[in-house]
Specification:
By secondary structure, the protein is of the alpha+beta class. The chain is about 20% helix and about 20% strand. It has one domain: Roll (Ubiquitin Conjugating Enzyme). Pfam families: UQ_con (PF00179).
């Protein structure tokens, strides 16, 4: 897991924050045998620690391999510049055949994020493939900061309800 450093790069978090994690991705030790999905998650964690996407980091929350915390730093030149955004990542037991669930824990106003922090990103829905990795997911989420997808607006039902009930529509 990484935290923002002063130079715009991320630096490792103190390993004491992660029970069972000794500081390198390959040294994660599970207390029980690891399922196929767990092995895949471990492999992705190792790859993410070796080559993280720009301004992104992620890693297990405590000793739960299926619950991660991610950090994305708002890209420069956007309204999110300099912001630090935290997300929960929950991997399903049948990962990678089902996508992980990502929820913004930092409050954010964005057309692809609803008020509960849920994301509307194709990569987590219709375009999901077992070939995708959490690194690709983090890159996709960071890209919505740079280029929002208003046609994937999450408030369609809420917006249509308000439009229909609007005095202008009567």
């Amino acid at each position: 897991m990484m935290t923002p450093g002063g130079s715009g790069r991320l630096r490792p978090l103190p390993t004491a924050m992660y029970a069972g994690y000794s500081g390198t991705a390959s040294s994660w030790v599970a207390k029980t045998s690891v399922s196929a999905s767990g092995k895949r998650i471990q492999r992705e964690m190792a790859e993410l620690n070796i080559d993280p996407p720009p301004d992104c980091s992620a890693g297990p929350k405590g000793d739960n391999l299926y619950h991660w915390i991610a950090t994305i730093i708002g890209p420069s030149g956007t309204p999110y510049e300099g912001g630090i955004f935290f997300l929960d990542i929950i991997f399903p037991s049948d990962y990678p055949f089902k996508p992980p669930k990502l929820v913004f824990k930092t409050r954010i106003y964005h057309c692809n994020v609803d008020t509960a922090g849920d994301l509307s990103v194709n990569i987590l829905r219709d375009s999901w493939s077992p070939a995708l990795t959490i690194t690709k997911v983090l890159q996709a989420i960071r890209s919505i900061f740079l280029k929002p997808e208003p046609c994937k607006f999450l408030f369609y039902s809420q917006a249509s309800d308000q439009t229909i009930s609007s005095p202008l529509m009567k």
